[in-house]
Amino acid sequence: MAIREVGAPSEDRLNPGARAPRALGVVLLLILALGGCMIGPNFQPPKVSVATSWQDTADQRVGTGVTTYRDWWKTFGDPALDRLVEHAYRDNLTLRQAGVRVLQARAQLGVA
């Protein structure tokens, strides 16, 4: 490859046919790479045996009742975490309040 002058057109621009072998190589490489992803036409998914019920359903220690997750963080017994969550509930906006603020900002943009 010869050194060319700054600003001089490259060989690819002078000879558009010079890009053809490179493009062909890229296409062949893609065909080979994507061909490895193909599954044969006679593919059958393997049969998997799955239990009809959970193993420990008869165990009395396993709770099957409805669980509420409203105060999930209290299971950690951490007063600092309790204060953080209470602070977040107290100081964060509701979705409606946040939506109203977005609409107010859009209205102010329209007025300005």
Topology:
Layout: H1 11-14, H2 19-35, H3 79-91, H4 95-111
Question: Short summary of the structure?
Answer:
Helices cover about 45% and strands about 0% of the residues. It is mostly helical and about 110 residues long.
Rounded average pLDDT: 82
Q: Helical amount among residues, as a percent range?
A: 40-55%
The total count of strands amounts to 0
The end-to-end span amounts to 60 Å
Low-confidence runs of at least 5 consecutive residues: none
Sheet-strand content, in percent, reads under 5%
Which radius of gyration do the C-alpha atoms yield?
Answer: 33 Å
Describe what you observe in this structure:
The protein has 112 residues and is an all-alpha fold. It has a domain at 74-111. It contains four helices and no strands. It has helices spanning 11-14, 19-35, 79-91, 95-111. The longest helix has 17 residues, at 19-35. The relative contact order is 0.03.
Descriptive tags:
112 residues, mainly alpha, 4 helices, 0% strand
